[in-house]
Amino acid sequence: MTRLNDRTIARRNISRHPVRSFCLIGAEIVLAAFLFAGSVLVLSLTNGVLSMSDRLGADIMLVPAGYDPHVENILLSGKPSAFYLPDDAMSQLRALSLDVIEKVTPQVFMATLRASCCAYPVQIMGIDYESDFIIRSWLDETLKRPLHDGEIILGYHNNGNAGDEITFFGQTLTIAGRLERTGMGFDSSVFMTRNTIIDLANAADRIKPQKLAANNNLVSVIMIKLKPGTDTVKTARTINKALNPQGIYALFSKKFVGTISSSLVLVSRITKYFLAALWVMAVIVIALLFSLTVSERRKEFGILRTIGATRKKLAFMVLNEALIVSIFGAVAGIILGGVIIPVLSPLVAESLHLPFLLPSWGKILLISAASGIITVLTGLCASGLFALRAGSQDIHENMR
Amino acid sequence: MGPSGSGKTTMINIIGCMDTPSTGSVILDGVDISRENASSLTRIRRDKIGLIFQQFHLISYLTAVENVMVAQYYHSMPDEQEAMEALAKVGLADRARHLPAQLSGGEQQRVCIARALINSPQILLGDEPTGNLDEENEGIVVDIFRRLHDEGVTIIIVTHDPEVGDVAQRKIILEHGRIVDDIDQSATFGQALKLKSHS
Predict the structure, then answer these.
(1) pLDDT (0 to 100) of residue B38
(2) Alpha-carbon gap: B23 to the closest alpha carbon of chain A (Å)
C-alpha cells in the first residue's frame, strides 16, 4: 500500500535524486563529524589536565631547579629524560621539620635507549617500594603482593604482558603487570624498584656513563603528600624559600596543572574558532546547495502549485527534505566522528604534549546528541529561507 | 485555436487561476476570479479545475499512481484504490508503479489526465494536450475526452491542430489576444468525435 504525505514525498525526492542528496548529506556529515570529534577532543584534553593533579597522587614535587620542563615532559607525555636532585635533598627536606607533611617518597628516573640493548626507548621510574604512595595502592589492590627486584610494572601503552620477559641494557626483567590508563606520561613509562633501576644503571654505564651508577643514592624527584587541609601553595613557598639556594625547586601540582591549562585554553580556543568557522562554512554550503536545488526545482514547484499545493505546503515539503537529509547527515557524521576520535586523539595528544582522557560515556552521548541537534538545526535554518522562496514566483513563470 | 502568440495559453492560465488579467474580469462558476487573492485562487484551482499540459508536467520522482495521489493529497486525502481506478480508466493500471521516465509520451499524458480528473473537477483545461503525441496516442486521448464529456465534464482545450479543434462543440479563434471567430459545432459534434477516435 502506497502512503503519501509531506514526509513520503520528501523521502521519494531524496532517494530518487541521489547525487543532489549525497552532496547535501555530505555537507551535514562533515559538520556533524567535526563538531562531535572536535568537542570530544577538547573535552578529553581538559579532562586529562584537570584529573592530573588527582592522578599524580602528590601535592608537591621537589625537582632540580630549572628542570621543571623535563618533569612536564615525563608527566605529560612520558618522554624519556633523566635528571637528579642534589645528593642530600631528602635530608635537607627532613631538616625543615614541616609537620604538615604526611608522606614523602623519592623516585629516580632513567631513560632506556633506541638501540639493540633495549626493547624500546622508555622512561623508567624507580620507586621506593616501602614509602611509595603513587602506584602502591594499585599494587596492593591488583598485584596483591610486593613488587620484587627484577620485576617491572608497565604503563598502559607499553608492549608486553604479565609474565613476559623484557630486556633493557642487556638485563632481563619480568613483567609483573600493567597499570590502568591514567591519561598521563605514566602510560608510557615503566616502574621498577629502586634496586632494579640501580642494577640497570650499572649495566647501562658500560654503554653510556650514568650518574646513578656513580652515585647510587641519587634521586630525581621527591613526591610529597600533605596532611588534609594544608595550604599547598604556602607550603611550597616555604620549601622554595629554604631550598631554592640549594638548587631544589618545589613544584605544586595545582600550579603545574595551571601552567598546562593555559596552553589548553589556547588549544581549546583554536578548536572553538575552527568549529565556528566550519559551522559558518557548512551553513553557506548547505544554503547554497538548497538554493541551487530550489532554483533547479522551479518547474516542480509550479506543477505542485497547479494541482493545489499552497506555498506553505511547499515550504513544509522543503523543510521536511532538509530535516531528513540533516538527520541522516548528523547520524552518519557522529558515527564518522566516533571513528575519527580514536585515530586522531593520540596524534593530537602527542603533538600538543597534553594528557588525554576520554570523557565518560554519558558525556560522550550528550556531546553526540548536541552535535546532532546543532547539525539538524543548521540544515533547517540554511534551508528555511529557500523553503519560503519555493513556489513564491508566479505559477506560469515556474512552469516555463 | 489560433496561431502562436495569439494568447491561447494566457487565456488558459487565467481561467486556470495561474495568472491574473491586467484588465477586465473573468467569471468562473459565478466568482470573479480576477479579484481573488493568491490563496483563494489556489483553493479554486484545487477544487474546480483539472489541468493537462503539452509537456505533461509529471513529478519525475513519483510513480504514475503517486502522481495521481499527490493531487488527492493536496485536495483532501490520498486514496490509492481511487487513484488506481483513475489510472485504469485511462488504460494504465499495469503501468501504475512506473516512474514518468519509464513511460511513453502518450502514457505520461494519460497519467496527467488521470491526475487532472482525480478530484472530480468541474472544468478540465488542456494546453495543447495532444501537441506532443503521435497520431495513435492523440486518438486515445481524444477518445478519453469524449467519454469525460459524456459524463458531464466541461473541457476547454487550447490547440492549433485543426483536427482536434473540429471535435469540440464550440470553437473560438484567437488572434493577437482577441476573439476573431466563435463557431458553434454542436450539429457536427458527435460525428466529428467518432471520426477522430476511429481515425
Answers:
(1) 84
(2) 18
- Mean pLDDT over A87-96 rounds to 88
| B58-106 residue pLDDT tens | 999 999 999 999 999 988 888 999 999 999 988 899 999 999 999 998 8
The whole-model pTM stands at 0.65
* Identity at A192, one-letter amino acid code: M
What region does A200 belong to: left with phi over 0, alpha with psi -120 to 50, or beta? alpha
Contact status, residue A232 vs residue A53, Cβ threshold 8 Å: no
Measured between alpha carbons, how far is A230 from B55 in angstroms, rounded to an integer?
A: 87
State the smallest CA–CA distance between residue B59 and chain A in angstroms.
Answer: 6
- Chain B residues interacting with chain A (CB cutoff of 8 angstroms): 9, 13, 16, 18-19, 38-39, 42, 45-46, 51, 53, 57-63, 65-66, 69-75, 78, 80, 99, 115, 119
What is the predicted ipTM?
A: 0.84
Name B115's Cβ contacts closer than 8 Å, sequence gap at least 6.
A307, B50, B58, B67, B68, B70, B71, B86
Q: What is the mean pLDDT of residues A83-87?
A: 88
Going by the DSSP 8-state scheme, the letter that residue A206 receives in this structure is: T
Domains, chain B, with CATH or none: 48-198 (3.40.50.300)
